[in-house]
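Field reference: sequence -> structure
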Amino acid sequence: MRRLLRVLVAGSILWALPAHGTELRIGLAADVTSMDPHFLNIAPNINIAWHVFDALTHVDEDARLIPGLAVSWRAINATTWEFRLRRGVRFHDWAELTAEDVAFSIERTLKVPNGQLRTFTQRIVGKQIVDAHTLRFARGDRVELARNDGYWGGKPAWEKVIFRIVPTDPARIAGLLSGELDAIEQVPTADLPRIRRDPGLHTAQKVSWRTIFFYLDQRSASPPGLTDKSGRPLARNPFRDLRVRQALSLAINRQAIAERLMEGAALPASNLVSPPVFGYAPDLKPDRYDPAEAKRLLAQAGFADGFAMTLAAPNNRYVNDDQIAQAVAAMFAHVGIRARVEALPINAYLPKGRKGEFAFAMFGWGSFSGDLALRPLVASPDPGKGFGAFNWSGYSNPRVDELLERAFASVDEKRREALARGAMRLAMRDYAVIPLHHQITTWGMKKSLAYAPRTDEFTFAHHFRAQ
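Structure field:
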């Protein structure tokens, strides 16, 4: 057990005995459901984990890899990567970090029951070693961290950080306006003008790597909640028809959502990754808004009278998520699709989605590269390969799978990106999912603070500074 704890807190940024002095209070938009870094691969948990645990590589504000515990890495051959570790990094018992500790951490990802990080490590078939405090956590309330003055990356500015879990937008804004919070993430778009008018506050924004999209159940013969308008089961699953999937995409007015509902804080999407991200296919363009063509395609597919369905969405995870769901449902009504919105808190939403209880569902994803996004979201489910872990659509295209296999096997960056783009084109033109938009992420804070906004949307306390 002692060894496990040592590995988990390797190089932690803000973990030490409680200290008094400078304090930073940050309002988070989503709950933290686990402190185990190898269990759930979801953004709220990862965001906090980055403050406590460390990694071989870090990511800069533009979602590009930079050195972390590893100062360098290189491909030895087509199947082998070598990492050179940073010297002088120590655990809290003062033992120095070694290659054995890294190997142990990788092996642990494969042993955590129902852990989602194994997707990224299960293909590592061999490891060669060349050479040689206090946390308080209450779910739904707060995470308190104290500074580790021995951290290898330099002393953070704050002696203590309090992450308050404030999932409701009005409460988060009220905390910032009252001074109870020093900074918040996910500023509601409707409150942007209010914050910008306040002389004591300001914002930081950046195009996010997070793409908002919709899953369509193409696996089930009779998806849940999908009926004709009289409530009778449909003879066949309309989502298995490419024309229906395209029609639903054409029925969505992405530009109107971006400009009016999102107050300009979104970019209409055609890819599962945003423009700055590796593997983005620039030749793909967002679908136009064309309800007449949508109706024609539905009629051609045998659904001239439309059908009824449930449109599922979280109501506390993505910017304006429940409002977007209502807007899209209204747009579907114009082409004959009756969509009833079911909006749930993210902690209730995710388990239902994983169990296949949604026929048409909103989701959001951010990734370092196009192929890494496609692998869990649209690749044919294959636990042995780590493919399709979040493929709620049940979509399967052998050609997409083949291109992803080749991309992951390549150590040539340009070739890998070309293969990733090829897979992206195939999946998007097949409407494996329906992309909606890329979020523009906004942080609000006191005028006395500065924050470098990040493409990956993470809120890092150690990146806030006084100004």
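Note: Residues 1-21, 133-140 have pLDDT under 50 and may be disordered.
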